[in-house]
Design brief:
Blueprint lengths: L1 H21 L10 E5 L5 H12 L5 E3 L5 H9 L9 E5 L12 E5 L1 H15 L7 E6 L1
Parallel strand pairs: 1-5
Antiparallel strand pairs: 2-5, 3-4
Length: about 140
């Protein structure tokens, strides 16, 4: 009986080693600052950010103000303007993660512009290269 238990234990150890070595270890996503986005103030933008992150876009924005204009052109190019709406993009153009392939949604100008001003004011003190994790609440 001891031999059976010993063999089972050895088999478990070997299987455990094989299983754990086959599972890729993902690097921890790091960030410098957490920004709690106020859903109650900007619900359309908040919904868009949540949905885009749930669809696989990054919740982290690496600030890069200098490239924002070019990334905005890239992300908005496939989406023509619509009267009465702004085109909201996630990740935002000011983020290195933004640009071509960003999620774009038509939302009300007041929500989009208010949210943009709020985010801009919150991130103003931080230099380019700062990694900001967005949490909608």
């Amino acid at each position: 009986m001891k031999k059976v238990y010993g063999a089972l234990f050895a088999l478990m150890v070997v299987c455990s080693f094989i299983i754990t070595s086959a599972v890729p270890v993902m690097a921890a996503t790091s960030y410098d600052v957490v920004l709690y986005f106020p859903f109650s103030r900007y619900p359309e933008t908040g919904d868009h950010i949540r949905d885009a992150i749930a669809a696989g876009h990054s919740s982290i924005c690496t600030i890069d103000r200098d490239g924002a204009d070019e990334r905005r052109k890239e992300s908005l190019a496939p989406y023509p303007p619509k009267s009465g709406y702004d085109r909201d993009e996630w990740p935002m153009a000011m983020c290195l993660e933004g640009g071509a392939g960003a999620d774009v949604r038509y939302i009300s100008p007041s929500d989009n512009r208010g949210a943009g001003a709020w985010v801009g004011n919150q991130l103003e003190p931080y230099p380019d290269g700062t990694r900001v994790k967005f949490i909608v609440q």
